[in-house]
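Hi R.,

Here's the chain you asked about this morning:
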Amino acid sequence: MNETTSAPRSPGAKLHALGTFLRQAWHLTKPYFWHSQDRWKGRALLVAIVALNLALVYMSVLFNDWYGVFYNALQEKNAEVFWTQLGRFSYLAFGAIILAVYKFYLTQLLEMRWRQWMTTTYLQRWLTGHTFYRLELARFTGQQQAGTDNPDQRIQDDINGFTSQTIGLSMGLLNSCVTLVSFVGILWGLSGDFSFHLGGSEYFIPGFMVWMAVLYCGVGSVLTHYIGRRQIPLNFEQQRVEADFRHHMVRVREYSESIALDQGETVAQRHLGQRFERVLDNTLRLIKAQKNLVWFTSFFGQAAVVFPFVVAAPRFFSGAIQMGTLMQIASAFGRVQDALSWFVDSYQSLAAWRATTDRLTGFEASFLAAEHASIAEAAIKTIANTSLTRTAGDTLQAQPLQVHLPDGSLLLAVDALTTTAGEHVLLQGPSGSGKSTLFRALSGIWPHASGQVQWPAHAMVLPQKPYFPNGALRDALAYPELPERYTDAQLQTALREAELGHLCASLDTLDAWNQKLSGGEQQRLAIARALLHKPQWLLADEATSALDIQTEETLYQRLLDMLQAQGGTLISIAHRPTLARFHRRTWELQATNDSTNAAFALHSRLL
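And here is the predicted structure, written out as tokens:
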């Protein structure tokens, strides 16, 4: 948590922290209203909401005047005025209802549009430049920057909370300020002077009820902060542990087959139980903190109901004011007290808003770190003075190329690597030598690499565990392209060539294909995707490891036929010796102790 320390801070430090937080909130708010394409609609909605809030405050002033006339009519038993005021109340209430409904509607509309823009922007930044991969790589290698956990929860939940809380709290503050300005003069005029004798002299306090409201709410606000301030770090932690619990439940669903085969339900339940215990533990602490605050705010609110009557009662019983004036005083005092009590009433919402803002600020910082670095050197700690330059070309070349591990150690060094069209290459080496990492470096997603790489324009990588988006089979097959680019005949031909003819009638079937298909079927569907896209260069990383030898050889031959028709090249990572006959050259990673300090070096030879 980047929250607080238990040591007390000076007032200056608290003000500085408050200023920093408000700047962070403004930094998250400003882009939508100042720079987005939707800024004019957003501003128009904001202006309309502000106008409706002001109109509702004005309606409160009219209601306050109504109280005086109505209750005076009751005291004087004036039936004519009584019925007239009931009629006046009906149209005042109708107007207030209309204003309240449209205030709600436009507020929700603004929240929706703001959330839509922020979510779209954050998704784009998260998915651009492999940022999502680099942040996850940093998390799995123990180099996670504070504030980058559970990006799904930040985009889905925190943005929603931030937009609704920001608008709700800011409009509440505006309403309180306008209400205070509108009613403090009314309350001042109705209060009269409070006189008392001291030392043989008589003293007068003008606007006594106003000063009592300020004193009452000032003391309440200070006590509220000291009682409820623990909720800020607890809300931050609650969001984190809730997201962690949800994330691990999703993992159980994704790996349900593996867990079932391993009979790992007991372990999975224990792990989930441990995370849920953290949720419950923090929830209990948060409930206790909220309970202490509710004790005070409930007492504060109930006392506020009778407080103005207690203070104004002597004037009423002395005959100085009528019942209508007393009710006006109580109403005006209530409005002023509500305005001054905004901090007290909104403290729990402010604590949740603070936690949400801190989480989004940390997420924003992780984006900036990744966006401002050429190879994500700020998102994860990489090697100083290393960079990888990639250019487009007709062949695959690299010289010289160094691939590092996240801890900075040199994994492998390549003096020169080149292959030409039609020269199919088999990449081999012991486990852990960096074969897959070399593919990642060549394709440009591995941030711990330096050198120069020429990457062919029409290249495709087949991973050992391919990804398929949930949805229609045609979407999974055409990914990452749109299925509309291909006819049903083309899609079905690709499935049949990949030995998946039984799926030809399922192009429009919606399913989670990574869970529905077996490992071998997933690899065959990825090969069908390659046969459909027809790349000129294909890098296969153990892409047939789950297939039997006969099916593997059949599909390799079809991939080679497709590549030869395209004038392309196949580069494979494979351990089975039966695949050697489909390649003309081998790149072998061998252990080395030379001056490069690399753990492995690449050696090329003809088969």
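One quick note: Residues 1-7, 374-386 have pLDDT under 50 and may be disordered.

Cheers,
M.
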